[in-house]
Design a protein that fits this description.
single chain, 28-stranded mixed sheet, about 900 residues
Length: about 900
């Protein structure tokens, strides 16, 4: 029993020991978890989802950074005190183990404000990635950024930072990437940049007005692989070529617009004997006004590693033969130079191993002459050729022995015509073809339209004299294609177009039929559609819902009719809308107010009716052109139009408007400020898989100018006009309109306006044309008009003007017809003499006076002057106190008097002048 008892006791003890051991282990685990959760808030306990992941100090620092910023798009809306985990905020990345904020990336957030005082970011002590690029931050670059010493990536590019570059960026020795590009900085690039020895990429392109005076600091950046210093002056950077050659890993160098031609000594005396070999693969030296003397120092920078060379925009008159020995060169940019050699000679200098590797050749905008030889097409890897805007002749036929691999062929403004080139059909790999303005006067062969099935991305035959019908356009074109057949003589209807068109330009042809074919374009990528100056007929189909990317819609000068469809309001990206000279009718659809991106709205010469919509001024605030002329619009001019601060062309003429001219037109500040708002519409066109062409649409419009209609193109942006003629407007010209000092044309003719011409109208010294004819203006022509020295077209005819025409070089140069119909107007150029002119030609007064030149006053003169002085003095004294007494006591009389005074003083002035002239002539008799 004892043995049994002892055994049970031992078992119980063992069990207790094991239980205690388990409790100890569980407690230890629990304690470990507790310690872990205390030191690392990233690990939740018991599923507590409200536990913070980021540190309070760093969350508060981000909230303080956000506080002064403008965030119009609400991109930082997740940054709130209610959301405790800042690691979930937009643009924030944290370390998964420690919870520290490591990345702040708010690239392209649309933010604004000044951050130079946002020192709270110093609390982000583990930050290694800071990207604030493509926003609207302004002020100076914060110096405290130099204290964020863990940074490896810093991008402040594409903002509005100004001032100098802080020398404290030189403290960021861990940086491998730095960009300050596209800001408004000034001063020198700090030599402390030489401390950034870990830099691999340095982008200082277009930072502002900056310069490098000593370039030695660059030699310390031995890890540098890419360097962009476009727009920074290197005029004082002596021996910069030596420094570049000392960077062993540099593969990408861009020095565009760096004033390299002003460097006195770009290399040292021992430089040419150096055995250093360049590692550069891409070299950009454009826009430096370089001459061919630069080839001496270019040579060591161009080794067999060079793949891309840009020498465009200089003053080079040829290329050296050593460029033909670059056995890796694939792309040569040489456009916009002064080279005036024969093209075959130019090509011979590339005849080494470069001819076996060359893929892209850009030679546009030079003075190359001669003919394009067959040798060009035989380069084995050549895919891209741009010879536009040269004096080159293209033979009518080629006998190609090998298949050409050219895909992109641009021959704009070369001499290709007059026959349509049949050799084009041998280039079966073409995707882009530009034969614009090449003197072709022929029809397109039928087989031309079947050459490249579903292959062409860009076809430009514009500005020729090509005729014929256009067949089905579905077969030739690939996705996202652009077609330009403008300024030719194509005729007939358009049957089908690709559904994925990017751009379609049929301007100035003879196309007929309806325009329902536009409804086949359904991919929502159409950017440009110009069908103007044709003979299209019918209604505008209600299928514009698909054109949400459309920037230009021009249907002007056709025979289209009917109401505008409601779907026009879906064109939310539209910048230019021209329906000029059609037969559209009805009121403007309310949905059009959704097109808030519009900068040019031309609806003139149609049959639109209703009032001028107030939403034009309230919603379309970016307009610089508003043309509603020659419609059936009635009502008054809405005051809301005065909100269009950018407006430069306002034409409401030839309608049925009534009421007065709003005085608030003086709020059109663009007509006050010098210069013009940039109105060109810009967009990108896909060229290759990784490159885009920059396309620009220059807005144009038919404008009434000095009695005739003219089409304005490039100079439309400089035209600042107001045309309210041929309406039923009444009242006076508001004097505030004379504040529009940059206005060049003002036409208020053919209305029922009355009152006087504003006395300060002469302050509108930029006016070239002024037409106030066929109204009811009265009073004198203001003398200030003699100051309008630029005026070359004036019409004041058929009013009720009176008095003498002011004397000036300009006012007497216009024909008398410009003053006709004003019965009381006198003086040159009219033959009617003014009162007093006849008296000055009367016989001399006979008296006892001396002869001319005696220098003594006659008795008559003395008497005349005496009575003039006595009478004038007494009259002045008496009249002054009577008038002042009455005016002081009679408020209504005061107003009446000063109104009378304004109209009387010019008359009084002229009478006094005539009197004095007569006196002086009497003295000479």
């Amino acid at each position: 029993m004892g043995a049994v008892h002892m055994s049970k006791k031992s078992s119980r003890f063992s069990i207790i020991l094991i239980m205690n051991l388990c409790v100890f282990i569980m407690f230890s685990i629990l304690l470990l978890l507790l310690v872990t959760t205390t030191t690392s808030p990233l690990v939740p306990v018991g599923g507590d989802v409200n536990l913070k992941k980021c540190l309070d100090k760093e969350r508060d620092a981000l909230l303080l950074f956000k506080a002064p910023l403008q965030d119009p798009d609400g991109r930082l809306s997740s940054w709130t005190a209610d959301e405790h985990d800042c690691c979930k905020w937009s643009g924030i990345t944290c370390n998964n183990q420690t919870g520290h904020v490591t990345e702040l990336d708010i690239f392209l957030y649309g933010l604004g404000g000044e951050i130079s005082h946002c020192h709270s970011l110093l609390n982000l002590t583990y930050l290694n990635h800071l990207r604030l690029s493509i926003n609207s931050f302004h002020g100076t670059i914060p110096t405290f950024i130099g204290s964020l010493t863990r940074l490896r990536y810093l991008n402040l590019g594409s903002n509005h930072f100004n001032g100098t570059i802080p020398r404290s960026i030189g403290s960021l020795t861990e940086l491998s990437y730095l960009s300050l590009s596209y800001n408004s900085l000034s001063g020198t690039i700090p030599p402390e940049f030489g401390n950034l020895t870990n830099l691999q990429e340095l982008y200082l392109s277009n930072v502002g007005r900056c310069r490098v005076e000593k370039v030695e600091w660059l030699s310390h950046l031995t890890h540098l692989e890419e360097l962009d210093m476009d727009g920074i002056s290197l005029a004082k950077a002596e021996k910069w070529v030596d420094v570049i050659l000392s960077l062993p890993k540099l593969s990408w160098l861009s020095l565009r617009g760096c004033e390299l031609s002003q460097v006195m000594y770009p290399y040292s005396s021992s430089f040419l004997n150096s055995s250093s070999s360049s590692s550069i693969e891409s070299l950009y030296l454009s826009d430096n006004i370089l001459t061919s003397s630069m080839y001496r120092w270019l040579f060591p920078l161009t080794s067999n590693t060079l793949q891309f060379l840009d020498l465009s925009g200089n003053m080079l008159d040829g290329i050296p033969k050593y460029l033909g020995s670059l056995c890796s060169l694939e792309t040569l940019y040489f456009y916009n130079n002064s080279i005036a050699v024969k093209f075959p000679d130019f090509l011979n200098n590339l005849s080494g191993c470069t001819s076996d590797t060359l893929q892209k050749l850009f030679l546009s905008d030079n003075h190359l002459n001669g003919s394009i030889s067959e040798k060009l097409w035989e380069l084995p890897r050549l895919e891209y050729i741009d010879l536009s805007f040269n004096n080159l002749t293209v033979p009518s036929t080629y006998h190609l022995s090998n298949i050409s691999y050219v895909k992109y062929l641009y021959l704009s403004s070369c001499k290709v015509g007059p026959r349509f080139p049949k050799w084009i059909q041998t280039h079966k790999n073409l995707t882009d073809l530009d034969l614009s303005n090449t003197g072709i006067s022929d029809t397109t062969p039928l087989e031309f339209w079947d050459m490249w099935p579903s292959q062409l991305k860009y076809l430009n035959l514009s500005s020729n004299n090509i005729s014929g019908k256009v067949p089905d356009l579905l077969s030739n074109f690939a996705k996202y294609s652009a077609i330009d057949l403008s300024s030719n003589n194509f005729y007939g209807p358009i049957p089908n177009v690709p559904s994925t068109l990017f751009s379609l330009n049929l301007y100035r042809n003879k196309f007929t039929g309806g325009i329902s074919f536009i409804c086949q374009i359904v991919d929502e990528l159409l950017y440009f559609l110009d069908l103007s100056h044709n003979s299209f007929i019918g209604q505008l189909p209600d299928c514009l819902w698909h054109f949400k990317q459309l920037k230009v819609l021009n249907l002007g000068n056709n025979n289209l009719f009917g109401r505008l469809p409601p779907s026009i309001g879906s064109l939310i990206q539209l910048q230019v809308l021209s329906l000029y000279d059609n037969n559209f009718s009805g009121e403007l659809p309310l949905s059009l107010k959704n097109c808030t991106s519009l900068i040019s709205l031309n609806l003139g010469a149609n049959k639109f009716s209703g009032n001028v919509p107030v939403w034009i001024g309230e919603n379309l605030t970016g307009l610089y052109v508003l043309i509603l002329r020659s419609n059936k619009i009635f009502g008054t001019i809405p005051l809301q139009l005065c909100q269009l601060a950018r407006l430069q062309t306002l034409d409401l003429s030839m309608n049925n408007l009534h009421g007065s001219i709003p005085s608030c037109l003086s709020n059109l500040t663009s007509m006050v400020q010098q210069g013009g708002f940039s109105q060109d519409v810009q967009y990108y066109r896909n060229v290759t898989d990784n490159s885009f062409a920059f396309e620009t649409y220059v807005d144009h419009a038919m404008i009434e100018w000095q009695g005739d209609e003219h089409e304005f193109f490039n100079n439309l942006k400089l035209l600042k006009i107001i045309n309210l003629s041929s309406n039923n407007l009444t009242g006076q010209i508001p004097y505030q309109i004379t504040n529009l000092s940059d206005l060049v044309a003002l036409n208020l003719s053919r209305n029922n306006l009355s009152g006087e011409i504003p006395r300060k109208i002469g302050e509108m010294k930029k006016l070239l044309t002024l037409d106030l004819s066929r109204n009811n203006f009265s009073g004198w022509i203001p003398s200030s008009m003699s100051q309008m020295s630029l005026l070359n077209d004036l019409d004041l005819s058929f009013n009720k003007l009176s008095g003498r025409i002011p004397t000036s070089t300009q006012l007497q140069s216009f024909p008398p017809s410009r003053y006709n119909g004003n019965a009381r107007l006198c003086g040159p150029p009219l033959t009617k003499k003014c009162p007093g002119d006849e008296e000055s030609e009367s016989p001399p007064i006979i008296g006892n006076g001396k002869s001319e030149g005696d220098g003594e006053d006659t008795d008559d003169e003395v008497e005349l002057w005496g009575w003039f002085v006595i009478g004038g003095g007494m009259g002045f004294g008496t009249g002054f106190w009577i008038a002042c007494g009455a005016l002081l006591l009679n408020r209504r009389g005061r107003h009446a008097f000063f109104q009378f005074y304004e109209s009387f003083k010019d008359l009084f002035y002229v009478r006094v002048v005539v009197f004095i002239v007569n006196l002086q002539k009497a003295r000479q008799m």
